[in-house]
Amino acid sequence: ISQGEAIDREFKSESRGKISDQDVYEVVVALANTRGGILLIGIEDDGQVTGAQPRHQASTIPSRLQSAVLNNTVPNINTRISVLPHPKGEVIAIEVDAYPEPCATTQGRSLHRTIGADGKPQSVPFYPRDQRSRRIDLSLLDFSAQLMESADFNDLNPLEFERLRQTVRRLNGDQNLLSLTNEEIAKALRLIETRDGRMIPNICGLLLLGREEVLRQILPTHQVHFQVLDSTDEVKVNHTFNGPLLQVLEEIESRFKSRNEEKEVPVGFFRLPVPDYSMDGFREALNNAILHRDYSRLAAVYCQWRPDHILITSPGGFPEGITVSNLLVHEPNPRNLRLADAFKRVGLVEQTGRGVDRIFMGQLKYGRPVPDYGRTDSTGVRVVLRGGAASLEFAAFVYELDKAGHPLSLDDLLILNTLHLEGRIDTETARSLIQKEKGHARMTLERLSEAGLVEARGGGRGRVYHLTATLYRRFKGEAEYARAKGFEPHQQEQMILDYVKAHKKITRAQAADLCQISLDQAFRLLKKIREKFPQLKLEGSRRGAFYLWVE
Length: 551
What we know:
This protein has 551 residues and is of the alpha+beta class. It is 39% helix and 19% strand.
């Protein structure tokens, strides 16, 4: 209740009368058609508890209400229902899981949850177009594999077949494709099917090889924008592409290269170029946006070049099961499976399906912030690639390790880059960063420590890590190393003794702030000082406790 209403939380008030059973069924259907959630009956919109009215004469019987929901939804939706006591009245809680196919009430009402124009969650009609997008998100429908009955093989451009061959050679794709005829390539990549002696292309075939005029007519949802904006968000360049994907990718890559400036850093007798943006990272991010977008939505892919970052937007949210917090570890779940297979064979994306790792590596190896997916929602996946000044020394350090035969893994880079940018890291932060269990994070930190790249400070829950003196001096200088490492134990003791003698007393919070340590570490430190110096006396208790120096 304290979290308020959301896509997966709905409050219903009964202070002015009991809501109908049909209203209950419709909310359950809306939650099941989105991502599941909970319906709380007896709660006002502002979170105030006013209580639910009994649904079965003098009380509410959970099993009867559960049975009613089950028998009045199609497919039958099973729920978990409980009646929760509260001083201001009982609250009925109905928990709903996301359903693997579109649902409706037996009255034919199908709804789903969305955010309205006022920024508040609401249940709205679940139209066939929305249901198709939902089936695509659930990997129940491969939109790119659907045949386009109104098209034929002649709607595929012979020039695009040649472009495909050139792309295979350039990106070292499936070399077996090079010796095939146009018709054989289309069959090998499953871009066409033969029906009654007629070769009919599917959506994937048209997207890869179709004539532009045909794509505009048959697939109006396919559109890619490349924009350049200034600091006031005024559009300086706006190019729109409606052609086949290989052509579009070449056009955007050409514009990217013309704007992507480089600096150089000496590494021995070699000068290492450090670009504003990683070509590999940008290419993979753009490929992902085009490959995994929801082509059933009337929306476009946007690539926006801004003064300090690039924003790439792809219509449709993450596929089912993928979130910002598991993006690095979730198994690949392509929205357009037929198109994904073709991209892999051509060489456009990773065969392993772990292209997101390349996007992260592209940012991290130059000492820049990780790609930011925080703006992603149900309408689109949005990734921000930060530009600006790179850390030339960090880039040189990563390059040297790679050439020496000791390349850093993505987990290593995530941790080292964070230490380089922020100074310190603990095990819990590292776990969240690499999106793996805490034990794995601890092992990675210890391995980096054994390799002489990081140092540990403190113990137990207060244990933190920072870069070694050698790396800090290389990246940021001696002063930054001293600040990151903090004070030595004997320095902390002397600082507290000097403080308490000068100010007559000290609290645990003051000691923590003085020594730049946690409250628990300050408590242990003060206890240790009291054992060595009996003159330090503890007065008071709990929050009112403080320490006096008594001669």
